[in-house]
Amino acid sequence: MVKSPIEEIEKIELDLLLDAIYRCYGYDFRGYALPFIQRRVHHRLRNEKLPSISALQEKILHDPTVMQNLFCDFSINVTEMFRDPSFFKALRTKVLPKIKDKSTIRIWHIGSSTGEEVYSMSILLHEEGLYEKAKIYATDINEENIKKAKKGVFSIDGMQQYTQNYFEAGGKRSFSEYYKAIGEQVIFRPYLQTNVIFAQHNLVTDHSINEFDIIICRNVLIYFNKELQNKVHQLLYESLCLEGYIGLGKREGIKFTSYGNRYEEFDATEKLYRKYR
Q: For the whole model, what pTM was predicted?
């Protein structure tokens, strides 16, 4: 399909914008999927009341506040406790029994956002008697998300949904045991982050941080183009121990990547794979 002159100009503007962001701020969004970038950039144009992408480029080069706003636009923060309960139930009933006898269990939670799913993992490990020998590495590209996650403070508005998710994921206790309600907020018990390391990490530009038994990378790769997806899959593969497990999002997979033949499908429905070579 032939692009119109306006579409061609917008593509040039987007390429220049992403290159300027990388050269000025060090954030590399050049391998992100074009439709995602377009949606987020147009959202920022409306908010800043700017006439063009070129005008946005000029503004971010001279105003770091605008760059921070755009960075937040690119950082997707859709999350909740025990999001997709069946996924956490599969971890509980299928994956953890396979690795429970290891002396240490290392888990990498990529794109951890503000921490809801990380605390969910802590609760799951605690109930299965594995938390004391586990270490969870929770990483996100957005440093502000990491700061929020460390606090373990969330709005009480979500607790009803989170409680339902918890029980659907196989929860064994009263969910309220894990937090204290204060006004309109809840604070999760401090022991749930005793074995958690929160850190900023960029999948696009940073290296592996350890070797892991489980890697959770859900709904992150859908925002990357095919070339960048393959690059990230290399990082994930190299970060996973032999017979380690990786969990992806519902719309993601390994089959058509360069590493598809190095995993076996462990749970097709929940997009869980095991590295076997």
A: 0.91
